[in-house]
Write a structure and sequence with these properties.
Blueprint (H helix, E strand, L loop, with lengths): L4 H5 L5 H7 L16 H10 L1 H24 L6 E3 L11 E3 H4 L1 H20 L4 H30 L1
Antiparallel strand pairs: 1-2
Length: about 160
C-alpha cells in the first residue's frame, strides 16, 4: 500500500496529544519514571563502562551470596555471630533469619539505584557512578563478611 505525500507527512496522534485536544490531562502511570525512560537508562548503563561493570559485579555477588546461603543453610547453627560491637558472648549472636536480611537490603538498595538511573540517566552521570560504586563496594564487603562468618561456623 503506497501512502501519498500528505499521508506520509502526518504524524500518528499520540495519547497525550489526543488528550490535550480534548482538554484532558493525561498523567503517566508511574510518575517517578516520567523524566527518563527505560530505553535511555538501558543505553546509559550499557554505554558507561563504570555503570556496566558495577551492575554485573553487584549482580554476580548477589548470586554468590544466594548460592552460599543455599549450599550451607543446613550446616549453619540456629544463631550466628553478627553484632561484633557488643560484648563477647551471647550478645553477639543473632537468629539465622537476621543473617538473611543483609542480602535482601543489598537487593533493595540496588533496585533504588536502578530507579534513580532511570530517572537521572542523562543529567547526573557522576552521581550515578558514585551510587553504583557504593553499591558494589557494599556488596563486596558483605560477601567477604558472609564468607568469613559461614566458614567460621562450618569449619
Amino acid at each position: 500500500m503506497k501512502l501519498s505525500q500528505q499521508q506520509r507527512g502526518k504524524r500518528m496522534p499520540t495519547l497525550r496529544r489526543l488528550g490535550s485536544q480534548a482538554g484532558v490531562t493525561i498523567e503517566p502511570a508511574y510518575p517517578f519514571l516520567s523524566k527518563g525512560s527505560l530505553g535511555s537508562a538501558y543505553t546509559a548503563m550499557w554505554s558507561d563502562a563504570v555503570l556496566r561493570s558495577s551492575f554485573i559485579l553487584t549482580f554476580s555477588i548477589f548470586f554468590l551470596l544466594v548460592l552460599l546461603l543455599v549450599t550451607t543453610l543446613a550446616k549453619l547453627p540456629p544463631a550466628m555471630p553478627l553484632l561484633y560491637s557488643l560484648p563477647w558472648g551471647n550478645d553477639q549472636l543473632v537468629p539465622l533469619r537476621v543473617f538473611i536480611i543483609a542480602p535482601l537490603a543489598l537487593v533493595v538498595m540496588f533496585l533504588v539505584h536502578l530507579l534513580l538511573l532511570i530517572r537521572l540517566a542523562k543529567q547526573y552521570r557522576v552521581l550515578l557512578r558514585l551510587l553504583f560504586f557504593a553499591n558494589t563496594l557494599g556488596a563486596v564487603l558483605l560477601l567477604i563478611t558472609r564468607v568469613k562468618i559461614v566458614f567460621l561456623m562450618i569449619g
